[in-house]
Design brief:
Radius of gyration: 31 Å
Strand content: 5-15%
Mean pLDDT: 91
Shape: elongated
Number of helices: 16
Structural class: alpha+beta
CATH superfamily of the largest domain: Ribonuclease H-like superfamily/Ribonuclease H
Distance between the termini: 131 Å
Largest sheet: 7 strands, mixed
Helix content: 40-55%
Number of strands: 9
CATH class of the largest domain: Alpha Beta
Number of domains: 2
Order of helices and strands: HHEEEEHEEEHEHEHHHHHHHHHHH
Amino acid sequence: MPDWESLAEQLKALGVNLEKDSRLTSARAKKYPIENVVEGQFRDMIYGQVFCHEEHYPSDHLHGKKPLCPSESISTLCLWANASPYALDELQDFIFLDTETSGLAGGTGTYAFEVGLGRFTENGFQLAQFFMRHPGEEPALLAGLTEFMDGMKAVVTYNGKAFDIPLLNTRYTIMGMTSPFNGIDHFDLLPLARRLWRIRLESRTLGNIEHEILGVSRGNEEVPGYLIPEMYFDYLKTQDARPMAGIFYHNAIDILSLAGLFSHMAFLLDEPNADKVQHGEDIVALARFFESMDDYPQSKALYQKALQSEISEELYWETLERFSFLLKRNNEWESAIELWELAAKNNALYAHEELAKFYEHRTKNLAQALKWTNNALSILERDLLPPYEFHQWQEKFTHRLARLKRKSARSN
């Protein structure tokens, strides 16, 4: 008869544990499936099932302090995005999209385990979040995304051109499926947010924009975005879906903020002179935006309004300079000269240069050109400038002075 006690001792010495693994028992006992944590249903796709959570928000829903559904024309937004000229009633053909991924660096090894989608309907805004319980459900998730996007003409994201859409396109390719993003317009709101709020806000992350601009404060359910990949990998190991509730919340707020931000941007670009635009920094940013869009009447009106607004002294003189060159490009010389003379009183060297150019080349008034050139050289003698800037200006004005003296001598 075998000596079981001796055999057990030998196996134990080799590292073999004959006792029941309490960790496995504990893990099985603590499984919490996603359907017990987040309300939703399983959708049957050709590739299998995918879990989907849906919510609906009425047309008058406010996200923070701003309306979720836009009421102003989106024509300027379309022009900025190089998109088709959509009307408001075509917003039902727009998809608002945000992904939660297994990594933040992208690449073929990264996949989107949750995709949040939103779209306007006749009665408000519909939110759908597709979630895969394990990587084997990725084809079903992608199929669910394609089905939800059927007939859509445009997608709205925040940094989606650099991250979300390339990532999803890669996943569709790897799975041998056709991407629904081919051939549709893309509104990536991050570059526009940077242009509109670079002056006023240090950070233009979606979280900071939604808080500062939309007035959204996230609840205790919120989880930091950088923790989400790790939380999902923990879920794959434990099958405990309870932490996923925070990720669903995070993703839902992102989608709502996308729609609210789109709506607010439409308002700003459609009515930039409205009294509701109260921050001077925002008025300056709008003036720069419309200048970049070659909308001279709108940018001129906004620059004029900005100079009457409460802005810092530094921003005031910077704005005056940009406005003066806008006037110059549009041959409004009298208005440009008025601004240059004002800036010259503040010892702005660019203004002295522009005045000298004007009188030398356009009116042939060499005496005035000499006056502004000599004034600039006097400023250089008494004001302390960085060496490179000093030598650059000194070279310009001494060269101009020599030329003006030669011209004056020939004319006498």
